[in-house]
Design a protein that fits this description.
Layout (H helix, E strand, L loop, with lengths): L1 H25 L6 E6 L6 H17 L2 E6 L6 H8 L7 E6 H9 L10 E16 L8 H7 L5 E5 L5 H14 L3 E5 L3 H9 L5 E5 H10 L3 E5 L25 E9 L4 H15 L2 H9 L3 E2 L4 H22 L5
Parallel strand pairs: 1-2, 1-3, 5-6, 5-7
Antiparallel strand pairs: 3-9, 4-7, 4-8, 4-9, 4-10
């Protein structure tokens, strides 16, 4: 009997030691560098959130955080760089709905999203249609009615963006009218074109011009979300404006090479999710037009895959493609 108890105690001690070693191996060494590769220029929403989350990760976990901007090719350059990185959780991609859109939009991008795993989707922001306050169409119904039989012109921050595809889909499939897209080099340029009266409408994710819509410099006609957004609470949803079910969201998420161990993905998800739950971080995201999102790693993966399919439907319906 004594031998049995001795063996049991020894086994328990061995299991505990193994668990301690496993836990230690799962944690990065203090000061270990974490590289966040952003597919967009500095100052944009993806870059801003990468830095906000990255700074807190560095503070809370004693890690050196390096945010690197690699814009170009619709963010595909950054994506390829991360796919080719060592899959140990030290190099992550920070991207937006562009990642889901590009899976269908680009014919020869050189990769599939199957080469990535989703760590976390930290915030979402709906597409918003807005006009100059001097425009005679100050509701979506009035704007559409006054432009019946005409070619509606709208501005966005570029070709193949979530704003561009959402607007094209809305006008061609739901309104059944001609629309001309005027792409600009960035959201501020597109917004300024409408503020200056050069283009009648701008379509953007709310994070691109939340302050102008909230402050009345732009009139929001409709928000492509399930419900109204607090920061622009007077702007109705598309369902309320007479187009039930129309929804188009952008978001910011963190991704890793697909061979990254699942335990590392779960650990990173927990660290990032804890940061997004912090009141100061949540308030900061809400103020710039984002809705903070909390989800486990599997839930984030499911969300991303649904986004790929939703944007695939829109892109294929519109017949859009980029070489």
């Amino acid at each position: 009997m004594k031998n049995i108890w001795a063996l049991a105690v020894a086994f328990a001690a061995s299991v505990a030691a193994t668990a301690a070693i496993t836990t230690a191996l799962a944690q990065p060494a203090p000061g270990a560098q974490l590289n966040l590769i952003v597919g967009f220029a500095a100052g944009g929403s993806a870059d801003s959130i990468a830095r906000v989350v990255g700074n807190r990760l560095g503070e809370k976990h004693n890690r050196k955080i390096v945010v690197e901007n690699r814009p170009g090719a619709g963010a595909n350059i950054a994506t390829r760089a991360v796919i080719g990185a060592t899959p140990d959780g030290s190099t992550l991609l920070v991207s937006t709905a562009a990642l889901a859109i590009n899976e269908t939009l680009y014919r020869n991008k050189g990769f599939s999203v199957d080469a990535l795993r989703t760590i976390a989707v930290v915030a979402t922001t709906p597409e918003v249609f807005a006009v100059n306050p001097a425009n005679p169409g100050q509701t979506l119904a009035d704007f559409v009615q006054q432009n019946r039989g005409k070619e509606i012109t709208f501005a966005t921050a570029g070709i193949g963006t979530s704003s561009h595809i959402a607007a094209e889909y809305f006008f061609s499939q739901l309104v059944k009218t001609e629309a001309r897209h005027v792409p600009f080099r960035g959201g501020p340029d597109a917004t300024n074109a409408v503020l200056g009266g050069h283009v009648p409408m701008v379509v953007s994710s709310l994070s691109g011009f939340a302050s102008q819509v909230a402050g009345g410099q732009l009139t929001g006609l409709a928000v492509a979300a399930d419900q109204r957004v607090a920061v622009i609470g007077k702007v109705p949803t598309f369902t309320e404006a007479g187009y039930p079910g129309f929804k188009a969201m952008s978001w910011v998420g963190f991704f890793a090479p697909s061979a990254t161990p699942s335990a590392e993905l779960v650990r990173l998800n927990k660290e990032i999710d804890d940061i997004v739950r912090e009141p100061a971080i949540r308030e900061r995201l809400i103020a710039i037009g984002f809705d903070p999102m909390n989800a486990t790693q599997p839930e984030a993966e499911t969300y991303f895959r649904r986004e790929v399919e939703q944007w695939r439907k829109m892109v294929q319906t519109l017949g859009l493609s980029v070489e």
